Amino acid sequence: MGIRVGCRPVQQLKAKDCFWFPPPPNHVLLYCDGASSGNPGQAGGGIICRNESCEVLGTLSVGLGFCYPPWGMEWAVSESFRNVWVRSDSRSAIQAFPSNRVPWVVESRWKALLASSMLVTFSHCFREVNFSADCLAKKGGSHLLLGGS
């Protein structure tokens, strides 16, 4: 089953250049996104993990309930990836983690990740580049609404 991406209205009428770069050698790139059916509401998350050859190493679609743990980075550690590049269209998330201003609900998990030998780089990307992680995040959130486990 492929990822189905439909058309959606745009907020800006000016075209912006969007570029996609593979991660450097010996790094993995995690594109990540979250989605919620309300605020607050059932939330989901999605990641796409690629290597320097642009190969997809894995995808993850997760129902998160009402929290947003750094699950993509935890997965990377569990898979023994040590050089991780995290890209997201959420500027607040990209700014919060490197500055250690994380929500209290994920603070202990974030500190555990910092204690690991993982080296993490964070960067922002446009929503249009992050469409596959967005699709997986919405799928994860809707799975909870449908009563999945």
UniProtKB/TrEMBL annotation:
Signal peptide: none annotated. It comes from the Eukaryota. GO terms for molecular function: nucleic acid binding; RNA-DNA hybrid ribonuclease activity. Transmembrane segments: none annotated. Residues 71-139 form the RNase H type-1 domain. InterPro entries: RNase_H-like (IPR053151), RNase_H-like_dom_plant (IPR044730), RNaseH-like_sf (IPR012337), RNaseH_domain (IPR002156), RNaseH_sf (IPR036397). This is RNase H type-1 domain-containing protein. It comes from Macleaya cordata (Five-seeded plume-poppy). The lineage of its organism: Eukaryota, Viridiplantae, Streptophyta, Embryophyta, Tracheophyta.
